Amino acid sequence: MQNRKIHRGDILHGVAKRSIKTITRIAADAGYEKSSFYVHIKKEDLDLDIIFKYGKSIPHNFDVEIPEMSEYLDTHKLKKEDDDAKPDYEQVVKEKERWKDKYYTLLEEHTILLKGK
Asked: What is the mean pLDDT of residues 21-35?
């Protein structure tokens, strides 16, 4: 079986289509026009710098789909999106409770102000 060359543009397009962001927003967040995105997805050997920008925009780590991306990130001393510190469950629950309490406090203040009229 012959090794098939990875089409980086196709990979970018597939990931972008699955994103909750629109193509226009993804391109803008990456620093490109929407029309540039469509030029980029046609390129089999799309530059890793461009892929990195889209990865930050989407956000998506292209390491799995594009093995060279890992070496690129290491060489340029760039941080992978997956390396970001993710809060643990307890932190998320505490944060949720904090915002819930804030909401109820503001709701009570709002109700008091409405009754005062």
From this structure: 95
Domain boundary assignment for the chain = 1-84, 85-117
User: Percentage of the chain with pLDDT > 90?
Assistant: 60
The structure's pTM equals: 0.64
| 1-84 classified as CATH 1.10.10 | no
Q: Taking Cα atoms as reference points, which of 26, 29, 28, 32 lies closest to residue 13?
A: 26
DSSP structure string for the chain: -PPPPP-HHHHHHHHHHHSSS-HHHHHHHHT--HHHHHHHTT-TT--HHHHHHHHHHTT--TTTT-THHHHHHHHTTPPPGGGSPPP-HHHHHHHHHHHHHHHHHHHHHHHHHHHT-
**pLDDT band for position 87 (cuts 50, 70, 90):** low
Work out the burial of residue 6: count CB atoms within 10 Å of its CB; fewer than 13 is exposed, 13-18 middle, 19 or more buried. middle
